[in-house]
Write a structure and sequence with these properties.
Keywords: Cytoplasm, Glycosyltransferase, Purine salvage, Transferase. The protein is built from 6 helices and 10 strands; from the N terminus they run βαββααβαββββαβαβ. Helix 5 links the parallel strand 8 and strand 9. Helix 1 packs across helix 3 and helix 3 crosses helix 4.
Length: 193
């Protein structure tokens, strides 16, 4: 797995505003979690547009046919915007029982149990070049399941892309040998109680 943070070859000046637009909510949804809330990024139209534009600039000339986003709402916001910007189709990856019609699914293990991703059968054609987009990557379990699902459908996963990636990600996540591109690392809040 390759983890590349945006700005590794020179910091993009837009990244600070993107990072600052993400609200950190201490102890949500449970004690000890520093939740990275991208809804405040969405309220800042310039920072939101800059985030999407950075991804579009990266993928515009890579012959990407499919932008797949998971799981559920937050990844969809960025994935659909990027798909429109690069002229690719958008494929939602959902939790079970959320898509009508025939689906293919991929179960995966979480720290506390199992979960499952589904996508429409036939949404990805063999040899289509795919990027997977999400808002945040923690352990990489969901992205790894998305890679397996898309490859089972015949897609060629080129890269995974996330707005936020944990700083110790290189140790924690396993993305089936696929590169991971992240814009920013989580901000910390001082004096949280």
């Amino acid at each position: 797995m390759f983890c590349q943070k945006n700005g590794a070859k020179g910091e993009d000046p837009r990244l600070q505003a993107i990072s600052e637009a993400i609200r950190v909510v201490p102890h949500f949804p449970k004690q000890g979690i520093m939740f990275q809330d991208i809804t405040t990024l969405l309220l800042d139209h310039k920072a939101f547009k800059d985030a999407v534009d950075i991804f579009i600039d990266r993928y515009r000339d890579m012959s990407i046919s499919v932008v797949a986003a998971g799981v559920e709402a937050r990844g969809f916001i960025f994935g659909s915007s990027i798909a429109l910007g690069i002229g690719a189709k958008f494929v939602p990856l959902c939790k079970p029982q959320k898509l009508p019609g025939e689906v293919i699914s991929e179960k995966y293990v979480l720290e506390y149990g199992t979960d499952c991703l589904e996508m429409h059968l036939g949404a990805v054609k063999p040899s289509e070049r795919v990027i997977i987009v999400d808002d945040l990557v923690a352990t990489g379990g969901t992205l790894s399941a998305a890679i397996r699902l898309l490859e089972r459908a015949g897609g060629e996963v080129v890269e995974c892309a996330c707005v936020i990636g944990l700083p110790d990600l290189k140790v924690q996540c396993r993305l089936n040998g696929k590169p991971l591109y992240i814009l920013v690392e989580p901000r910390q809040v001082e004096n949280c109680f």
